[in-house]
Amino acid sequence: MTVQDFTSTAQRLAEEGIARVGSAATAAELEALRTALLGRKSGRLTELMKQLPSLSPDARRDAGAAINQAKSALEQALEARKAALAGSGADRAAQDLTMPARRTWQGAKHPVTVVIEEITEIFKELGFTVATGPEAELEWYNFGALNFPPDHPAMDLHDTLYLSGGGLLRTHTSPVQVRTLQKYPPPVRILAPGNCYRRDVFDASHAPMFSQIEGLAIDERTSFVDLKATLTHFAQRFFGATRTRFRPSYFPFTEPSAEMDVSCVLCKGAGCPACKGSGWMEILGSGMVHPAVLESSGVDSERYTGWAFGMGPARVAMLRHGIPDIRLLYDSDIRFLEQFVR
Length: 342
Ligand code: 2NL
Hints:
Blueprint: H1 3-22, H2 27-38, H3 44-50, H4 57-94, H5 111-125, E1 129-130, E2 136-138, H6 139-142, E3 167-169, H7 174-183, E4 188-197, E5 209-219, H8 224-239, E6 244-251, E7 254-263, E8 280-289, H9 291-296, E9 305-311, H10 313-321, H11 327-330, H12 334-337
The site of 2-{3-[(4-chloropyridin-2-yl)amino]phenoxy}-N-methylacetamide (2NL) has 19 residues, from α7, β5, β8 and β9.
């Protein structure tokens, strides 16, 4: 072997060795590599060293220097890798695997959505189906079909948001019921939840956009008894064991009309600030569908009768949680809303 042979072999062993050391994954693997390359008995570099005496003294010095360089490069790589593996082991030992995971915020349903879903579930059990329709409506579906006289104040520009081209943003979900009656013959039992719009200033009790949920039942001989029984059952399911009372009211689309109160959900009827001391909370408006509304929806008012109701889920959520200002529900402030996550 020439000096050149010694030098190139030593360099090759160093290069290959350093690469294998770099990918060693455990301390045991590193130790095996150290033995294979630098082991005192049969390491590859040690073997090379043992052959140095075959060279002349000058050549031996040069070849020996090359072998020593390779050896120290390998030792350095072994030490560095050892430290790296020990370091990651130290990190692992420092981790406290019993530490609780950081809580992630996954989002939750808005309290108004929860109310809508709970109401919907109760009426679904009674055979009602959910119906939806457009929020941009025609004036006829929003007012005309519902027996509003042409000069009704709700139709005023100051109360309703009109669109260019003759449309408007619906002020209640009743147009959904009219559209459904035009499409499906009675018997009909539907629930119409959705967003509605009025030209209101956003204050503690009014929002320009709000949700409404209306119900409608049309059948032969359905009566005010069915209205009272169904709505009382609903109040008991939704608010728990509670008393209800019906007070006469007026809506253009129902006759007779009635408002339903439930005994205050907070004080159970004893009287508190939430119910202004009365023990009662107004929950919804209702009534027997006006024959004129049946007829304009294409329903024979001699054969069929119907009853309907409407309520505001935001108002119900406010009563349930004692929220004093409707704007709190629509500000989208997570810090406020997350207290209602169940
Ligand atoms: C309220 C009162 C009400 C209705 C809505 C209705 C719909 C049709 C026909 C007849 Cl298509 N009536 N809906 C009836 C009575 C009251 O809502 O105070 N809502 C917040």
